[in-house]
Amino acid sequence: xxxxxxxxxxxxxFAYLSLLIFLALMGFFCAMSLQVGSLVHRRAAxxxxxxxxxxxxxxxxxxxxxxxxxxxxxxxxxxELLLDTRQTERFRHLRKIYPDPMTGSTEWGLEIxxxxxxxxGVFSLSTQPPIKVGNFPRGLASLxxxxxxxxxxxxxxxxxxxxxxxxxxDNKKSNFFNPSTIGIPPIGQPAMPGQPxxxxxxxxxxxxxx
Length: 210
Description:
It is a single chain. By secondary structure, this protein is mainly alpha-helical. Helices cover 31% and strands 5% of the residues. The radius of gyration is 32 Å and the shape is elongated.
């Protein structure tokens, strides 16, 4: 007596379409994960560039500060930041030539003074547009709204502005005043009769007019 084998149901069109949709979604989410990972990597590289760039800026500032009288205060090469031989006592303004976090190379772009041919600043050779275009720390606002990473230039002035917290494009005068100077006439002018110059701190109520 022969037995017939049960036949397997053929896959229908709905199951096939579901499989295609599943594979498409998987591909989409994989692509999104790669994109997000790349974005996170770029942000980390840009932050590393800021850190390394400020090290170069600090070294250029240190080189200028240690300049003997009558000598140039900018190096001819980055190697001079590693070993400054302008004085009997030698200085190391920079530990090493750091690699560019954006390119992975130790080759940097150099901003050269057209008159002395000496190095004024250092910048990345990356031509990629930066992700970070604003909200830089106080003193680094000159890096705002740049179109390419290579426009982030780090110089001795960059370090000075960062240390002092100065925005080089901010020309507003500070509103800070020393309260102890209130009532003191300008130099060369006598005090008003009956109003001798005041010394020490004032009671804030004295600053309020009637």
